[in-house]
Amino acid sequence: AQSNSPALALFCIDLDGFRRFNNLNGHHAGDKLVTALASRLQTLAPGLISRLGNDEFVMLMECAPDGDIHNSATLLCYQILHALTEPYRYKDKEFILPCSIGVALAPLHSGETDTLIHQATQARLKAKEKSSCSYAIFDQQHLADKENQLSIEAELMSAIRREEFQLYYQPRVNIATGKIIGAEALIRWQHPDKGLIQPNAFIPTAERTGLIVPIGYWVIRQAGIDMQRLQDAQLSVRHLSVNLSFRQFQDNYLCQTIQRLIEKGNIDTRILELELTESALFNNELHVLQGIGELHKLGINFSLDDFGTGYSSFSLLQKLPISSLKIDRSFISNITENTDNQAIVKALINLAHSLNKEIIAEGVETQAEQNFLAALGCTQVQGYLYSPPVPFSEFIAMLESAHHVKTGCAENQ
Ligand code: C2E
Ligand code: CA
Ligand code: CA
Questions:
Q1: What is the pTM of this model?
Q2: Closest-CA residue to 108 (of 214, 6, 241, 253)
Q3: 214 lines ligand 1 (CB under 6 A)
Q4: DSSP run (H or E) holding 150
Q5: Strand residue runs (E) in 118-161
Q6: 163: burial class by Cβ within 10 Å (0-12, 13-18, 19+)?
Q7: Whose CA is nearest to atom 34 of ligand 1?
Q8: In the 8-state DSSP scheme, what is residue 249?
Q9: Three-state SS for 42?
Q10: C-alpha span between 384 and 363 (Å, rounded)
C-alpha cells in the first residue's frame, strides 16, 4: 500500500472444527460448507475474498476515507463472527463451527501482502489460544514478547553454564514465638545485561524446554551449600525448602541425582524440604508417587505449595509423606474482608490439623492478616510482613540479629 492509498485491513479466518466436520460428514459436505461460508463472507466484503487453504480464508477491507481503520476492522470482526457462527444446514442437520480471526493493518503493520498475511495468521493463532470464536488484531508487543521469550530460551543455556543464578531466602516464621523456623529458597537470575530477573519471567520457559532439570539440580546443590554455611555459623533452621516443578519428575534420574547431590554436599535431609504443587502430584500420578516415596526414604520431607488452588485428594494427602501445607497467597491477601476466603482458609487449616500436617500461610503482608490467621489456628507464616525473599548474606544477618537460637536447641523452636 502506498502512502496515499487508503488504509487496509487484512483478515485471516479459520474454522476450528473443519477437519473434524470433513472426517465425520465426507468431503462433499465439506465443500458445501466452504461454499456457504464463502457466500456469507461475500455479503460482508464483496469481491475481496480468497481461499488460502482448506478452511482458511483471507479477506480484505478498505477503510472509508474518514474512517478509523482500527475501529472499522474491529466492527467487521464482530460481523464475521456473527455471520460464521450461525448454524450451517446440511442434510437436515445443523452444525455450528467455531472460528477464529486474525487481523493485520496496512500500512500500520506492513505494506507487503505476504507480511500482512503472516502477521494476520500470527494474530489468529493468538486469538485461537484465547478461546474459539474470537478475534485478535496483530500486535507488535506480542511479537516482542515472543522474541523476548526466544532470547530467554537461548540465554538460559549459557546462564546454566555460567552459573548466573542466585538463591534468595524468605523466612518462615512461627506466629506464636515470632522466631524464624525455616526459609524457602527462591531463584533469581543475575543477567549480565538485563540485571536481576524474577523467576516468573524464566521458570515457565525453563519448564517448557526442560532446562528446569539442570536448573533444579543447581538449586538443590546451592541450597545444600547454604545449609552448610548456616550450620558452620551455628545458625540452624528446622526447614530449608526448595521448589520442585512437575517437569523435574519426567527426568528418569531425578531420585538418583538428588541422592548423589545429598551425599556429595553432605546435605541434612531432615532439614531439606521439597515443595510440590498439586498439579505436580496429579500430572503423572503413579510415576510421581514412586519418586516421592523414594526421596522420602532418604529422609526428605515434602510440602504442598499453593494449597487450595488445585485439586487435592484427601486420600492422596493422607498417603503421601507431605509434612506441611502452604496456603496460597491468593486466599490470604484480602482475608480480613473477603468472607469466602475466610471460609476457605478456615477449612484448609482444619483439614491440615485433621491430617496432622503443619500449615503455613503464604503472602502475609499485614499484622491484621496475621492476627486473623492466628485466630483461625494457623501457626506459621511466610510473607512481606516479616520479610521479602533476601540474598543469603542478609538472611544470615537476620538470623544473627534476631539472637537466633544456636545449634542444639533447634528442636525447641
Ligand atoms: P512460590 O513457590 O509460590 O513462591 C512464593 C512467591 O510469593 C515468591 O515469588 C515470593 O517472593 C512471593 N511472596 C512471598 N511473600 C509475599 C507477600 O507477602 N506478598 C507478595 N505479593 N508476594 C509474596 P518469587 O520469588 O517471584 O517466585 C515466584 C515463583 O517462581 C515461585 O512461587 C515458584 O513457583 C517459582 N520458583 C521460584 N524459585 C524456583 C525454583 O528454584 N525452582 C522452581 N521450579 N520454581 C521456582
Ligand atoms: Ca514455593
Ligand atoms: Ca506458593
A1: 0.73
A2: 6
A3: no
A4: helix 140-161
A5: 134-137
A6: exposed
A7: 243
A8: G
A9: helix
A10: 7
C-alpha cell at 22: 470433513
Please say whether the dihedral angle defined by the alpha carbons of residues 102, 85, 35 and 16, taken in this order, is positive or negative.
Answer: positive
3-state secondary structure of 4: coil
- DSSP strands (E only) in 16-137: 49-51, 56-62, 88-90, 93-95, 99-106, 134-137
Kindly indicate the confidence band of residue 403, based on its pLDDT and cuts at 50, 70 and 90: low
Q: How far is the CA of 22 from the centre of ligand 2 (A)?
A: 47
If you take atom 45 of ligand 1, which residue's CA is the nearest one? 243
Bridge partners, 11 (sequence order): 59, 103
C-alpha 250/C-alpha 302 separation (Å) is 18
* Mean pLDDT over the full length of the chain: 89
Asked whether the beta carbons of 37 and 98 are under 8 A apart, the reply is no
State the cell numbers at 167: 538463591
Spatial separation of the C-alpha atoms in residues 274 and 335, rounded to whole Å: 27
For position 221, what pLDDT does the model report? 98
Cis peptide before 107 (omega within 30 of 0): yes
Ligand 1 atom closest to 247 (CA): 44
Q: Would you say residue 413 has pLDDT above 90?
A: no
Strands 322-327 and 301-307 come out as: parallel
